[in-house]
Design brief:
alpha+beta, elongated, 9-stranded mixed beta sheet, 38% helix, 10 helices
C-alpha cells in the first residue's frame, strides 16, 4: 500500500508551508494551516484505519464536519522543519462522527497534536462551507507588512480595503469581496474564532490587528495567492508612506472599469461610482 507521506497532498502542503516560512510569514511556530481533503483522496492510503491512533477531545461540537479528513500543522511545530520532517510537524486527522473529537490518522509521530488554533479553523471551515461548498483551506500567518499596516492605517474595513485595492492594480480582482477586520483578541480562544467566523460570512480574508492574516480558499494555491497579494499591496503601502505618502492613486472610476474588465463584483458600497 502506498505511504501517505509520499502522497501529492503531503508534498503540496510541505511546499506551501515552506514558501510561507521563506517569506518570513511564519517565524518559529507562528501561523497554522488546515486543509480539508476529500475522503476519496485519503482512503486509498488507509484501506484499513491504523489501530494505534490517538483521539483528542474538542472544546465544542463540530458535527458539521463529521468524518472529514484534515491535514493540519502541529502545535509548537516550527514551520522551517515541516518540509524536512513532515511526519513530526504535521498530521492527518479525522473528525469523529459525533463531532466531539478528532483522531490522528497519520503524523504527529512524537506525541504532538493539531495546532492550538484548530478550534478557530474548524469554526471557519464550517462557516465558509455554508457560503461555498468548494471551500477547503484555512491559512493563518504573520505577514510582515500587513501587520505593520495595522499600526499605521485606520482599522476600518472599507478604508483598509480600498487602500489595498489602490496600491496594486490587480488587488481588486483577487479580493473583490474586501477584507474583514476584527478587534485585537487573545489568540487560541473561542472568542477569536467566533469573531473571525462571523466575518467569514462576507470575506475570504480577515485581518487580526497587530497579529496577522486569516484567509480561506478552495485550494492551497488560492489561499496562499490571496494572502500573498494582500501582503504585496501592504508592502507597496509601506514604501509609499516612507516616500512621503500618497500623491495620486487609482480612482474609484478606474477601479470600477477594472472590475467590469475582469468580471468581478466589488463589495457593495465601496466604490463611489458604478453602483
Amino acid at each position: 500500500m502506498k505511504k501517505f507521506i509520499d502522497s501529492p497532498e503531503v508534498k503540496e502542503f510541505c511546499e506551501i508551508t515552506h514558501l510561507m516560512y521563506q517569506k518570513g510569514w511564519d517565524e518559529r511556530n507562528g501561523g497554522n494551516v488546515s486543509w480539508i481533503i476529500d475522503n476519496e483522496k485519503i482512503e486509498p492510503y488507509f484501506i484499513q484505519k491504523p489501530t494505534d491512533t490517538r483521539r483528542i477531545s474538542l472544546p465544542f461540537n463540530v458535527e458539521e464536519l463529521a468524518n472529514k479528513y484534515l491535514l493540519v500543522t502541529g502545535t509548537g511545530k516550527y514551520f522551517k522543519n515541516i518540509i524536512k520532517n513532515p511526519q513530526d510537524a504535521i498530521g492527518l486527522i479525522q473528525i469523529s462522527q459525533d463531532g466531539k473529537s478528532y483522531e490522528i490518522i497519520w503524523g504527529f509521530v512524537n506525541g504532538a497534536v493539531a495546532t492550538s488554533e484548530l478550534p478557530t479553523h474548524l469554526m471557519n471551515h464550517i462557516q465558509r462551507l455554508k457560503v461555498d461548498e468548494n471551500h477547503r483551506v484555512i491559512m493563518h500567518c504573520h505577514a510582515t507588512h500587513t501587520i505593520a499596516m495595522t499600526f499605521s492605517h485606520e482599522l476600518e474595513e472599507k478604508a483598509f480595503t480600498k487602500t489595498l485595492w489602490k496600491m496594486c492594480t490587480e488587488c481588486l480582482v483577487v479580493f473583490p469581496d474586501g477584507i474583514g477586520i476584527i478587534p485585537w483578541v487573545v489568540p487560541g480562544t473561542e472568542e477569536i474564532g467566533q469573531l473571525t467566523a462571523e466575518k467569514m460570512k462576507e470575506y475570504h480574508s480577515v485581518i487580526w490587528p497587530f497579529h496577522g492574516i486569516f484567509g480561506a480558499g478552495n485550494t492551497l494555491d488560492d489561499t496562499f495567492g490571496l494572502i500573498e497579494t494582500i501582503e504585496k499591496s501592504a508592502e507597496v503601502y509601506t514604501y509609499v508612506q516612507s516616500q512621503g505618502g500618497i500623491k495620486q492613486d487609482i480612482s474609484d472610476d478606474n477601479l470600477y472599469k477594472l472590475a467590469k474588465g475582469f468580471k468581478v463584483v466589488p463589495k457593495s458600497g465601496y466604490l463611489e461610482v458604478g453602483e
